[in-house]
Specification:
Endonuclease, Chain A; globular; 3 helices; four-stranded mixed β-sheet
């Protein structure tokens, strides 16, 4: 049975949805950037009874920069919905600052910082 590698310092116990998120958190931690993982969900649409039927939860919040980061490794052709949610969130919350890091951005980070190939391969996020 293969040994599991423990999570790096600063990311223990956080159930990241994707390996790229874990690697990004490691990078932020290494450079001393204070971050929070999925701390805020922004309602985007409601039904007739006022219940939230659509929401957006950015992956990271950088409190010192008051900036949300959405990290995605989806292929460019599949990102229309992600862009729509970000635009809708910014329309409903005009002061909201969100930066989308795309697959291309993730691959550039992977090359620069030597992330493992599997970090950017999962198309789920």
């Amino acid at each position: 049975m293969p040994r599991k590698t423990p999570p790096p310092p600063g990311v223990d116990g956080i159930p990241f949805a994707h390996a790229a998120e874990r690697e990004f958190a490691r990078l932020l931690t290494f450079y001393g950037v204070h971050w929070q993982y999925e701390p805020t969900t922004f309602p985007l649409d409601w039904d007739d009874q006022g219940r939230v039927i659509e929401a957006f939860t950015p992956d990271f919040y950088l409190p010192d920069q008051d900036l949300y980061i959405e990290l995605t490794t989806k292929e460019q052709r599949l990102m229309t919905a992600k862009h729509r949610k970000i635009r809708k969130a910014q329309t409903l919350h005009p002061d909201l600052k969100i930066r989308l890091l795309t697959r291309k951005d993730c691959l550039a980070l992977a090359r620069k910082f030597g992330w493992r190939k599997s970090t950017t391969d999962n198309p789920r996020t």
